[in-house]
Amino acid sequence: MTTLVTGGFGCIGAWVIKRLLAAGERPVVYDLSDDPWRMRMIVGPERLGDLVVVRGDIADRDAVVRVVGDHGITRIIHLAAWQVPLCRQDPSKGALVNVVGTANVFEAAKAHRVGRVTYFSSAAVFGPPHLYGPGPISDDAPPKPATHYGVFKVANEETARVYWEEYRIASMGFRPLSVYGPGRDFGLTADPTLALKAAVLGRSFEIRWGGATDLIYADDVAQACLAAADSTLDGARVYNLHGESARIADVVRMIEEAWPEARGRLSHVEQPIPFPAELADTGYQRDLGPRPRTGLRDGIRKTLDEFSALARAGRLDARELEPAT
Prior knowledge:
alpha/beta, Rossmann fold, seven-stranded parallel sheet, three-stranded mixed sheet
């Protein structure tokens, strides 16, 4: 079995790679970046030689098809994507990366008879809470995206459905909301993790939004990816991922309680983001579970401890906290 991880130098990619290496696999990473800095933090620099790394653009269909064929790929975990800020800044390029890139992955699977694709959708396919009834948002709630990014993710879910109906390529997509933990550093919902890193480094940080959100620990998301990649269920399935719903004001308070040195340094803007406040993960737990969730307090503690250990070892990369020049 050989797994291709597109966007493998990103946060979830690094956690997925860590688990694949621990299982004795030699995964293939396809990424446009040539700087695996998140991988160095999460996996460790000593394990980078255990990967097969292919530098390439997800928007280059021929290159994606070629890497699948050249390396005898038997399953694909597709994580390469632009997030909300970049898609807002350049919607055309965002569509190229997110929508065309996903179609390229399915084309590569079709060309080389790879029977299963695991990919990331997003809770951004849904709109803000006031568009829905009370309670958590279910898997089958109607999509009402408020961003280009969310629109692109809806398109990807439909792309996966058509590839199942026409070519019998099975797929599972996941809709997390606010992923947090080591390696999460870009996008609006990365701010809680940046606040955790700032706390360890003794810096001030303002989370740019507020209200309630559904926070899920990064390694829980990686476990979901691998459970899907190992599954034999057919169809084009899409699942919400639920961690724990909390208000950002309470997240700041939890960080300060776990890391008292951060008191007075962290703040937030009480401006909700246009996404649901809580997701129901009934389908995921039914089909791939039961899967335990990392509680928010435990996830905050784990992240602080990991950042602290990395700082002591001189390996805590904080480039995303540096002021723009």
